[in-house]
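call fold(seq) -> tokens
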Amino acid sequence: MSAMALSSGFSQTLLPASLRDNLIGEWLFENNGNDRSVNSNHLVINNTASFEIDRYGNTNSALKFIASNTQANSIFNINLSGNAERTISFWAKFGNQGTYWNGGYNQPGGYTQTFVQWGNYSQSRAMSSWSQASGGHLWFQAHWLDIDNKTPNNLPLFNEWRMVTFVYKDSLSSAQEYLDTNIQNNSNLTLNSYGNEPTLATVATPLSIIGSAGDFIDDVRIFDRALTPTEIGQLYLAVPEPSALSLLAVGLGGLAILRRRRPVRKVARSITLLSFVFFTNLCQAQLGFDNGTTWVDVADPGKGNVSYSFKISKYETTVTQYVSFLNSVAQTSDPHGLFHGFNWRYAEPINRSGSIGNYSYSVADGFQNRAITAMNWLDAARYVNWLHNGGTSSSDTETGVYSLNGVTSLTVGTTISRNTTAKFFIPTAEEWQKAGFYDPTKNGGSGGWWASANQSATTPGDPAVMNINQAYLDPIRGYVTDVGFFTEQDSFYGTYDQSGNVWEWTEGATLSGTVGGLNGGGWDYFDGTYGSVMVGGNKAADFRKDSTGFRIGAIPEPSALSLLVIGGIVSLVGKRRSK
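ret:
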């Protein structure tokens, strides 16, 4: 089954792990310009573009260019420069005939074109373009050096989605271009030199996506290696994730067949159950945009003081992730003080430029993967509200998971609870403790607790295996390390740094006037007991210091819904067999 044959109810595509590991950026345009790769290099899209129906029939899931030369630009550089291997791939559709600007004149019936590019003309530019004209051109340009593949017998039709892929490995002369899964005929491939540049040699600049009025683009992906023809086939046939609604529809359809079409009930049972096995295996966490979070699953419900399964971030929230948040919600203004001093004794990890109404934030050199610090509970709560509401510039920070209503401090006795519809959240103390310290295999399989969050029976205190005791001083950047710095010191469920590095906020408290707790100890504490499982401290929601941070949790996979319907089907099958 090809991706093109699947019905609506599907949106995000599932890539094989071998492809996801090499993503530099992934933009699916699901009502936003967010980058779903770990780099969180989101696009700023101008108001001459809109979100429209994609090739699966999903609304607000593809980008349409309304005006000529509409641009979407990334907030960070594409850090893939020089002659490094790369693959650029995207889906595009020509919506009208278009024109081509040539010598200062619009040429009717000329090119309509879509560019995915970075670099600059003063040195060189990586550019993947799909152009329609009377002769037909599919081409890749590096400054004034073009690979121009004329394909008059394989022209895309207007209003037809096609996948375009450019693969660069060793040199432009050996570069490959694909339309869908078909490599373009090398006999048609010509190398047109308008300058003297024998190699690609691009520089790192932000990504720009440019299109002609009326054209569409979707599923833009950049990889840091040359994909093989087999992998390009996998990319083309990437199976869309089923929505919970589509799973429910399959289940209900199966129930209807079983109830009303008794003569074919045996076949219907098999089809319905096989469909659910297929869809359930495909259905990963339907969390939507998660700002590049890496998750671990905390299973074993009913054990470790938590009665349900959930997800928790593998690492503490990073500076890069927080900058993505600031660039979404604090560009025009910052009424909640989300930008503030983060590293009180050393260099600041975040730079802010511009003025009120037009702020821009960037990560200072060397801080990309360091844990964000000086977070209070309200900072963390606004971050998860933003994620819950879609992670866009229009996503509310005041409602969704926690109802904050603009507060920047709380009076004694104030209670803020997690809303029942939360997709993301600050973990409770029990969730946080289970993720870091519980091991269901201890005590002969009955389960038990470790003293440290690195599966150690020894109370935290050794700076060789965790960031405590002010042991890791960078004279410029301070004491906080990159998340996951201690690569083999993970918990049973796979989290890192729950003992040491930064204190982590949890939701809920036992003292009046507080809404959160701090757990796990940080780089600044010598007493290792603060990193042990049962030790933490309740603090006011507006408390912060240069060693406080957070990690986030998320809802379990929505396959619970499909399992519920499967259970109903199995139950029904059982009843009929018993009659």
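The two ends are 38 Å apart (CA to CA).
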